[in-house]
Amino acid sequence: MPRRTRAPSLKQLCYFFIACLFLSSNAGAGTFSVIGQSRWVHVAYVFDGDTFRTRDGERIRLLGINTPEVGHDKQAEQPYAKQAKLRLIQLIMGKSVQLRLDKEKRDKYGRTLAHIYLRDGRWVNNIMVAEGLAQVYIFAPNFYRADALLQSESVARNDMRGLWKSSRFRVLDVSGISSRHIGTFRLVRGYVKDVQKWRFKIGKLTVSVPRKSRQWFTPADLPHRGQKVLIRGVIRTSTSDRLYLALHSPYDIE
């Protein structure tokens, strides 16, 4: 006789239903790498607007953003650095917060990279950007919720909130680039010319995609001649004293 199949119990059906709900609720949440990689920590000390230490001594760096530098050693404090630090203190100091990780868990300084959520569900990284106290700063392969951060930054920039009031952070027209901008992270706007495979120019600035970053780009991510673009990155000089900027992810160009 053929073996009879036992019908699933009510308890088994309940477990299956709950599992399906969990998977469907996370299907559109971003990269799959984030699912199941979260934990709670207690905040003991805030260093600046994007870095803090937990009660256990773990150093945490907020993913996807960069806030103005506080003054240290011989480096002068940047505009809105104090406001960014005070706001992060107000949001998380002494509280338990949730870390949500992406694909790359630590930076070269050994800090844990994370999106931070409060008990009430608010997303701290996005709050800092939306209030004009942080710029979007995306590095591959950590692309989780990058689109949402860029949208919040666009609104904050258009409304001239926080640091966007300062000439130090305001979008720079390519015609206004000079040697004083070398070494600074800037948003630069201009029209594309002299397009090559992994390189193009806007004004006197050469923009390129380094070999190690090309895996993250598709042809559709790169601009065409005559297109107006907004790019983000550190302005540098080449060995021939030409200004250039490297794109490290598709989110560095709009």
What does this structure look like?
With 254 residues, the chain is α+β, with helices and mostly antiparallel strands. The chain folds into two domains: 33-165, OB fold (Dihydrolipoamide Acetyltransferase, E2P); 172-252, Nucleic acid-binding proteins (OB fold (Dihydrolipoamide Acetyltransferase, E2P)), CATH 2.40.50. It is built from four helices and 13 strands. The strands form three sheets. It has a five-stranded mixed beta barrel with strand order 1-2-3-6-5. Strands 9-10-11-13-12 form a five-stranded mixed beta barrel. Strands 4-7 form a two-stranded antiparallel ribbon. A hairpin with a 4-residue loop joins strand 2 and strand 3 (59-62). Helix 3 runs parallel beside helix 4 (146-158). The termini are far apart.
Question: How do the helices and strands line up, and which of them pair or pack?
Answer:
Layout: H1 10-26, E1 38-46, E2 51-54, E3 59-62, E4 65-66, H2 81-92, E5 96-100, E6 112-117, H3 124-130, E7 135-136, H4 146-158, E8 172-173, E9 185-193, E10 199-202, E11 205-208, E12 228-237, E13 243-246
User: What count of structural domains?
Assistant: 2
Widest sheet: strand ordering: 1-2-3-6-5
Q: Please give the radius of gyration in angstroms.
A: 22 Å
The number of helices is 4
CATH top-level class of the largest domain: Mainly Beta
